[in-house]
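Sanity check

After download, print the first record. It should look like this:
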Amino acid sequence: MADNFPIDVIRSHSHSQRAYSPSLQYAPDAQQSHEKSEVTGPADDIPPDGAYGWSYGVFLSYYLSHNVYPNTSPLAYAFIGGLSIGQAMLIAPLATWIVHRFGTRVCLLLGVFFETLSLIGASFSTKQYQIILSQGVSFGFGLGFQFVGSVGITAQWFLKKRSLANAIAAAGSGGGGLIYSLATQKMIDSLGLGWTFRVLGIVTCVVNLVCANLLKDRNSQVGARHTAFDVNLLKRPEFNLLLGWSVFSMLGYTVVLFSLPSYAVSVGLSPQQGSIISALMSVGQMVGSYYEMRSFFADEIA
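Expected structure tokens:
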């Protein structure tokens, strides 16, 4: 699903020998040939389908069962979650340009700013347009900046176990979803909606600030090129087929992702049970997703 992000992180042949020469301090497995060390963005991308998706399902269930924002329809509430994912994709070309022009850290810090702003802003929202702008637009911008800025870093630090490393990172989104689903519902029950947003905003700011300042990319060592949007890709049939697959898979995936807790409530379960079901879905992603299976066989074949 992340393949529809217009990210082009490609190792050029002119840099491949320099990228893994023994003189580079951070070059792992320096003696490997450049054919095995090629980094391509889409092959190693990790979808942004983790903790936020699961926690918004809990928020959606709460919105639908409480008159939080007057004159807001169920469709409008559902639109907020989809809008955030859409904004993350829309901002991807700009985020890619920022990584190229200013570096990874600037892109990640922008993501921290927009995510924190969105959650704190949502905690004070009282009208429909305010929650749309905060939890929909602003959070989507933060998600896009952080995803684009970080998604290619893991692959740059591994050769033989690159796919396994990406699988562990992908499993982390499932672990985050497990925690977010249960914690969000518990905080809503005990603290209320406003303070739930504030706590999540504070935690998001602190954790992501630490991560943004600790992450180190190897863009210069691997000769990575970041292209915001390459129109030539649209001329390739296989790329258009991939885009089509992404569109239809996202249509089906996000419906389940955001609606599972609210559907659980609609069939007679409690909101707490709905959050547990969402958490169980996260566990399934963490331990049995396609990425883990693909990484095991990919590393064995390699």
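If your output differs, re-run the checksum step. Summary of this record's structure: The two ends are 24 Å apart (CA to CA).
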